[in-house]
Design goal:
Number of domains: 1
Structural class: alpha+beta
Order of helices and strands: EHEEEEEHEEEEHHH
Radius of gyration: 16 Å
Number of strands: 10
CATH class: Alpha Beta
CATH architecture: 2-Layer Sandwich
Helix content: 10-25%
CATH superfamily: Bira Bifunctional Protein, Domain 2
Distance between the termini: 15 Å
């Protein structure tokens, strides 16, 4: 399924009452700074600010600069794990398989959160369970919402990493902007190519 709209539209969708396995590709129509559920407000920088209902740090979404995939999984599915951390593992492997099919060697993180001084502010400045790196730089971030019926996994795969713009929007100082630059990387893959490869890599 593909949906086209703003980040506010996508994050404003209610969770379904019943879940089935599905993937929804989100094409954003305008830039937005998406904050995690517990982040403080940020100064007005002329870009819409959207708050998602899952945790983690901020993500700057702009048309054509990321692959945003929402993956739904019903509770009780063979891929389901009651442990919230381990529940990301199968999805991290799907992203690694995606990248491998395109000639890139990725790794998904299995272990406690790897935090930097900026990880509570910037999603791509920390590495959580299941999240994916290439050459040590984070390329896929994930967060999760779950109910008794199932889970919705938000995935953002970077095509371009604009750390300067993100630091500006979050009102980070120059040292922080320099510090977050090497922590993530854009994949430099055509968006449609990465989307198709990811959908193909998902377990059936």
């Amino acid at each position: 399924m593909r949906v086209v709209g703003t980040a506010a539209d996508a994050h404003g969708r209610p969770l379904p009452e019943t879940f089935s396995r599905a993937v929804r590709i989100v094409d954003v129509t305008e830039p937005a700074l998406v904050l995690g559920s517990t982040q403080p407000e940020v100064p007005d920088r002329g870009v819409p600010v959207v708050r998602r209902r899952s945790g983690g740090g901020a993500v700057l979404v702009r048309p054509g600069e990321q692959v945003w995939a929402d993956v739904l999984l019903p509770a009780g599915d063979p891929l389901w794990d009651d442990d919230v951390g381990r529940s990301f593992h199968w999805l991290g492997q799907a992203w690694v398989d995606t990248l491998h099919s395109l000639g890139l060697e990725g790794r998904w993180h299995d272990g406690p959160m790897v935090c930097t001084p900026w990880c509570r502010q910037v999603c791509f400045a920390g590495i959580g369970q299941g999240e994916v790196t290439v050459d040590g730089r984070k390329v896929v971030g994930m967060s999760q919402r779950r109910t008794r019926a199932g889970a919705l996994f938000h995935c953002a795969a970077l095509l371009r990493w604009d750390h300067t713009a993100l630091a500006h929007l979050l009102d980070l100082d120059a040292a922080a902007a320099v510090g977050i630059e090497p922590l993530a990387a854009g994949l430099g893959i055509a968006r449609e190519t990465l989307e198709d490869a990811f959908v193909s890599a998902l377990p059936r």
